[in-house]
Amino acid sequence: MVDPFDERVKNWVAGVVEGASVSLSAPNGTVKPGKGVGLYLLEIAHAPLPSSLKTPPLQVFLKYLVTTWAAKPEDAHQMLVDLIFAAMQEPEFQVELESMALTVWTAFNAPPRPSFILRVPLRQERPEPATRLVRHPLKVDSSLMTAFHGVLLGPDDIPLADGRVEIPALQLWARTDYKGRFHFSGVPEGGKKRLLVRARGHELAIDNDQDYPDATAPLVIRFSSLEE
After folding, report:
1. Predicted structure pTM score
2. Which of 19, 60, 87, 201 is most buried by a 10 A CB count?
């Protein structure tokens, strides 16, 4: 069962900023009375499955755009800073401090304002599958394993962060970091591998038959063009 995630985040805000109202609506140019915190669900993003011997729960990241308002701008700023530091102390929360694009505020019909992105994990437990009895001798095909390193680049060789790289046949996937780098700690050595790459709404399939065990000499994947 999925937990009441909006209420969970609203209760967390209430524990940090006492007496503030909380709005889940998109920010706009309307002047609101009193003081409060905006929690607009801006995006739902992929999240890696936690490692477990049992069936791991389904998991995503909820990305809330956090804004504040108050009669005095300095009070709104203080609330925002208090929320940022409080979120940094939460083990499961993540904070993104990159500035929002001007086009986003234009779409909201609101003037740009201080804000941050709060990433909150959301999980849904799955039942354990029924265990089937082994009725035949186990046959094991062994193969050597190796690390696999790559880097994802966009136009003008700009690194693409938060891209998803999959090896569907091995049921493996990884996210690119802020330098566009990704790696798999263990894949079968040699042989053809098909990689499926998704970034900024685009998808690219790549067939590769080489190993890239050295992080200093990765597989370079380029998207020739991307729309913002």
Report:
1. 0.55
2. 87
- Measure Cα distances from 212 to 52, 145, 193, 195 in Å: 28, 12, 12, 13
Burial bucket for residue 127 (CB in 10 Å: 0-12, 13-18, 19+): exposed
CA angle 112, 9, 24 (to 5 degrees): 45
CATH number, domain with residue 215: 2.60.40.4130
The answer to whether 184 and 174 are in contact (CB under 8 A) is: yes
Name the DSSP class of 47: -
Which tens digit of pLDDT belongs to each residue from 62-108?
A: 999 999 999 999 999 999 999 999 999 998 899 999 888 899 999 99
CA pair distance 101, 106, nearest whole angstrom: 9
Q: In terms of DSSP bridges, do strands 172-175 and 181-188 run parallel, antiparallel, or are they unpaired?
A: unpaired
Q: Is the pLDDT of residue 226 over 60?
A: no
Residue at a domain's end among 124, 153, 183: 124
Q: By three-state DSSP, how is residue 93 classified? A: coil
**Residue 140 domain flag:** no
Alpha helix (H) ranges present in the chain? 5-16, 73-88, 102-108
